[in-house]
From TrEMBL, chain A:
Keywords in alphabetical order: Hydrogen ion transport, Ion transport, Membrane, Transmembrane, Transmembrane helix, Transport
Any GO molecular function: proton-transporting ATPase activity, rotational mechanism
Transmembrane stretches, start-end: 6-28, 35-58
Family, per entry: Belongs to the V-ATPase e1/e2 subunit family.
Localization per Swiss-Prot or TrEMBL: Membrane
Subunit comment: V-ATPase is a heteromultimeric enzyme made up of two complexes: the ATP-hydrolytic V1 complex and the proton translocation V0 complex. The V1 complex consists of three catalytic AB heterodimers that form a heterohexamer, three peripheral stalks each consisting of EG heterodimers, one central rotor including subunits D and F, and the regulatory subunits C and H. The proton translocation complex V0 consists of the proton transport subunit a, a ring of proteolipid subunits c9c'', rotary subunit d, subunits e and f, and the accessory subunits ATP6AP1/Ac45 and ATP6AP2/PRR.
A Pfam family recorded for this sequence: ATP_synt_H
Species whose genome carries this gene: Eleginops maclovinus
Its membrane topology: Multi-pass membrane protein
Cellular component annotations (GO), alphabetically ordered: proton-transporting V-type ATPase, V0 domain
Protein name (record): V-type proton ATPase subunit
Physiological role: Subunit of the V0 complex of vacuolar(H+)-ATPase (V-ATPase), a multisubunit enzyme composed of a peripheral complex (V1) that hydrolyzes ATP and a membrane integral complex (V0) that translocates protons. V-ATPase is responsible for acidifying and maintaining the pH of intracellular compartments and in some cell types, is targeted to the plasma membrane, where it is responsible for acidifying the extracellular environment.
InterPro entries, per database record: ATPase_V0-cplx_e1/e2_su (IPR008389), ATPase_V0-cplx_e1/e2_su_met (IPR017385)
Automatic annotation (TrEMBL), chain B:
KW Transport (keyword) present: yes
Entry's family note: Belongs to the V-ATPase 116 kDa subunit family.
Organism taxonomic ancestry: Eukaryota, Metazoa, Chordata, Craniata, Vertebrata
Ranges in a coiled coil: 92-126, 264-291
The protein's name: V-type proton ATPase subunit a
Organism from which the protein derives: Eleginops maclovinus
Acidic residues composition bias: residue spans: 696-706
Any one GO molecular function term: ATPase binding
Length: 81, 847
């Protein structure tokens, strides 16, 4: 199957949400809503990054594998690989 | 929206007698200030402007009648975009006159119309009666037998047409009574006639084809034409009485056919004439109403504004010496300049010689809370306020709720497909909002959904994101990056053979075998779990831990927000005596739990999966300080745990006793009573001498220095017992609440599990049945199956689950998040604004 690394997604998403949460607030134009928009950006970045991080860390070192039906295994053998 | 409510001040308005109406009108248009009642002891009948209000109500009554008439004739009342201003007092009399004239005219025309209609009804009934009795007479002469019921004196019937010579021989005169009676009463009528007249009458009747409207009740009922033939005067009187009793409409019966034909002709012409007149009357009425409807809307608005202004004027107090009205208002400090401008404008409109002015006065009352919102933030502000309006100048949770509420909803709802449908629905509402606002539907459920359109849009967008992470789209997974689990590796490493596949129906992939697991799926949950039988074992563990992590972080955020309150209200001691022990307690216990979760994820893998410890057992053992038999998670664990427990235990008495003891020490002397604690009074020296202003009572202090802001910091007495009691309740609530609130966040797991399972069941039980049929008929069959699938998805998964997740996310905010820092016992600022006042007619649906 496809081999995934932990490092590459970690770097990608950290920079992505870092841009949203740290850099974008400086780019918001001045106006009456600036405070709300900056707060929203930071909170969005924190929430989404945290959610993605929990998902990937939970799968990084699995303690057990998926239990499949034999028909499913046949199918995967021929169609996914 | 700001992070805390705006600064308010109490101001006095001195309104000159000539221009007070215009000033208040100007203020009503702008909606800047909230008026206070300066005459609370005066009943509403004794106030100054009672007669003006009575006049306004009279005008409203006439307008109500007018609108009802307009609605009856189904003329549309045109809306105007700009609402007209309140009319000056001189114009009021004009409007009043116009309305009264209209009312008189309308009632007269209505009366005439009714008379004409009654007349018409009578004539129509007479016509029917003549036509039908004609058939009776003629049918009788043609057919001997009419039926057994009327077969009393057959020979007599044949004679009746010819002048009843046989009757005259008997010395009795044959008489006829004819008329109409309601269909429902006919049988009873007949029976009564039979019993009373003992068979000396003959009744024949037939139904009228046309449905006639009974003018008294307005019902359309079937009527029956009857003809009673009798002889004898006594019987005649009895018959008359019975007919009266049954409310029959009696009409004279013609003697012979020629007379009948004459009467019919004259009736016909009269009916035609009447119809013409009626038609023209209706046209005239319509014209009058059409003309009135053009200005109806502006009249309604003007009267509403006038009434509101007089109500406000009743709240002011009259100063005899200065001949002006004094009003007291709460005004945001930032709007004081606008207020002055409005008063100047009003004075200019009212042609006053002396201008009205504003005077800011100090006050010890707690001002109302004002948080300015725009159309996007108002939805989130309203769901925070549904719990409680914030105290004056305390931190508002609303700006954070804009993101955290949709996020927590999405964690519970997490489905890509459902999220897309929800977002599209919300997007449609947002893009068509101008038209929807004009429609102003009376359906409350739709209004609720429409006013929350931005909330639903945010919830939908976040649901798309969490749906992608959960890898759940209508209960199916997307395989974007390629799964990390390889089945082939199990074969190449000689773990499985073809024979193993044939003999075992279920096989588990082993991550210990090299090549089977090649790294975590980069975005979300691996798609292979959707095909796995033990899917829930993995997902439950993942979601439960995720819920605890999110919960602890959310609660810590709430505790941190309380620091801003303590600093703003100059209660720095609270930071050390309240915030610090709270945060330490929370983080030492539950922060450590989060740490253990993360550590276990990172440190334990497939190799040592048999020795992977249960976090829950370790956590419980930490509290009871046992567990020497268990293998530690990491070296030094016992030492660290004891340290954390000790800190947490120490922070409880600090929370419990620290603040009361400190306040007691301060009260007793300490470093001198620092008057800068609590909320600072507005101590601005006003322009005028405030001796003319009415004095305010200082609010009584039951406790000493308590936490609620805005109160006087000078205590008359300091009740140690009260403060200690309050603080102990707070400590118990916080400590026990930490545990229960953390567990409460597990609803994030529970609801997302329920949603996923419902979605799977719906797919499996409904859609799959349609897709499994392989014949051509299957295509046709798929259409209703998909319809059912779509209907059930929308009703169960979107509406029901959506409402459920909405409610639980709301509860998490209101209880678990807000009880860490928010009081919510304030009063909302309600400005005097014409646009906020509902019109009586709109509520009745007349406008």
């Amino acid at each position: 199957m496809v081999s995934h690394s932990l490092a590459l997604p970690m770097i990608c998403f950290t920079t992505l949400w870092g841009l949203v949460g740290v850099v974008a607030p400086f780019l918001v134009p001045k106006g009456p809503n600036r405070g709300v928009i900056v707060t929203s950006l930071i909170l969005t970045a924190v929430c989404c990054y945290l959610f993605w991080l929990v998902a990937i860390l939970a799968q990084a070192n699995p303690l057990f594998g998926p239990q499949l039906k034999n028909e499913t295994i046949w199918y995967l053998l021929y169609f996914w690989e | 929206m700001v992070f805390r409510s705006e600064e308010m001040c109490l101001a006095q308005l001195f309104l000159q007698s000539g221009s007070e109406y215009d000033c208040i009108s100007e203020l009503g248009e702008l909606g800047l200030v909230e008026f206070r009642d300066l005459n609370p002891s005066v009943s509403s009948f004794q106030r100054r402007f009672v007669s003006e209000i009575k006049r306004c109500e009279e005008m409203e009554r006439i307008l109500g009648y007018l609108l009802r008439e307009i609605q009856k004739t189904r003329i549309a009342v045109p809306d105007e975009d700009e609402s007209p201003l309140a009319p000056p007092p001189r114009q009021v009399l004009e409007i009043m006159e116009q309305l009264q004239r209209l009312e008189m005219e309308l009632s007269e025309v209505a009366r005439n119309k009714e008379k004409l209609q009654r007349n018409l009804l009578e004539l129509t009934e007479y016509t029917h009666m003549l036509k039908i009795t004609r058939t009776f007479i003629h049918s009788r002469s043609r057919h001997e037998a009419l039926g057994p019921q009327y077969e009393e004196f057959p020979t007599m019937e044949t004679d009746s047409v010819t002048g009843c010579t046989g009757m005259q021989r008997l010395g009795a005169k044959l008489g006829f009574v004819s008329g109409l009676i309601q269909r429902v009463k006919v049988e009873a009528f007949e029976r009564m006639l039979w019993r009373v007249c003992k068979g000396y009458t003959i009744l024949s009747y037939a139904e009228v084809d046309e449905n006639l409207t009974d003018l008294d009740t307005g019902e359309i009922s079937k009527s029956v034409v009857f003809l009673i033939s009798f002889w004898g005067d006594q019987i005649g009187l009895k018959v008359q009485k019975i007919c009266d009793c049954y409310h029959c409409h009696l009409y004279p019966h013609p003697e012979n056919d020629e007379e009948r034909a004459d009467v019919l002709d004259s009736l016909r012409t009269r009916i035609q004439d009447l119809n013409n007149v009626l038609h023209r009357t209706e046209e005239y009425l319509r014209q009058v109403l059409q003309k009135a409807s053009e200005s109806a809307y502006s009249w309604v608005v003007q009267v509403k504004k006038m009434k509101a202004i007089y109500h406000i004027l009743n709240l002011c107090s009259f100063d005899v010496t200065n001949k002006c009205l004094i009003a007291e208002v709460w005004c945001p400090v930032s709007d004081l300049a606008n207020l002055r401008g409005a008063l100047e404008e009003g004075a200019r409109k009212g042609d006053a010689t002396v201008p009205s002015f504003v005077n800011r006065i100090p006050s010890t009352d707690t001002p109302p809370t004002l948080l300015r919102t725009n159309k996007f933030t108002s939805g989130f502000q309203s769901i925070v306020e549904a719990y409680g309006v914030g105290d004056y100048r305390e931190v508002s949770p609303a700006p954070y709720t804009i993101i955290t509420f949709p996020f927590l909803f999405a964690v519970m709802f997490g489905d890509l497909g459902h999220g897309i449908v929800m977002s599209l629905f919300a997007l449609w509402m947002v893009l068509t909002e101008k038209q929807q606002k004009k429609k102003r539907s009376s359906n409350e459920i739709w209004e609720t959904f429409f006013s929350g359109r931005y909330i639903i849009l945010m919830m939908g967008i976040f649901s798309i994101y969490t749906g992608l992470i959960y890898n759940d789209c209508f209960s199916k997974s997307l395989n974007i990056f390629g799964s990390a689990w390889s089945v082939k590796a199990m074969f190449t490493n000689q773990q499985w053979t073809n024979k193993t596949l044939q003999t075992n129906s279920l096989l588990t992939l082993d991550p210990n075998v090299s090549g089977v697991f090649t790294g975590p799926y980069p975005f979300g949950i691996d798609p292979i779990w959707n095909l796995a039988v033990n899917r829930l074992s993995f997902l439950n563990s993942y979601k439960m831990k995720m819920s605890v992590v999110i919960g602890v972080i959310h609660m810590s955020f709430g505790v941190v927000l309380s620091v801003f309150n303590h600093l703003h209200f100059r209660q720095k001691f609270n930071v050390y005596l309240l915030f610090l022990p709270e945060l330490l307690f929370l983080l030492c216990l539950f922060g450590y739990l989060v740490f253990m979760i993360l550590y276990k994820w990172l440190a334990f893998g497939a190799r040592d999966s048999s020795q992977a410890p249960s976090i829950l057992i370790h956590f419980i053992n930490m509290f009871v300080m046992q567990g020497k038999d268990l293998a530690p998670l990491f070296p030094g664990q016992t030492g660290l745990q004891i340290f954390l427990i000790v800190i947490a235990m120490l922070s409880v008495p600090v929370m419990l006793l620290g603040k009361p003891l400190y306040l007691y020490w301060l009260y007793r002397g300490g470093k001198g009573l620092r008057r800068r604690r609590g909320y600072e009074r507005v101590r601005r020296v006003s322009e005028d001498d405030t001796s003319a202003a009415p004095s305010y009572e200082d609010e009584d202090e039951e406790e000493g220095l308590d936490e609620t802001p805005g109160r006087e910091p000078l205590p008359k007495e300091f009740d140690f017992g009260d403060v200690l009691l309050y603080q102990s309740i707070h400590t118990i609530e916080f400590c026990l609440g930490c545990i229960s609130n953390t567990a409460s966040y597990l609803r994030l797991w529970a609801l997302s599990l329920a949603h996923a399972q419902l979605s799977e069941v719906l797919w499996g039980m409904v859609m799959r049945l349609g897709l499994r049929i392989t014949t051509r008929v299957g295509v046709v069959f798929l259409v209703p199956v998909f319809g059912l699938f779509a209907a059930l998805t929308v009703s169960i998964l979107l509406v029901m689950e959506g409402l459920s997740a909405f409610l639980h996310a709301l509860r998490l905010h209101w209880v678990e998040f807000q009880n860490k820092f928010y009081h919510g016992t304030g009063v909302k600022f309600l400005p005097f604004d014409f646009s906020l006042l509902p019109s009586v007619f709109e509520q009745d649906g007349l406008l």
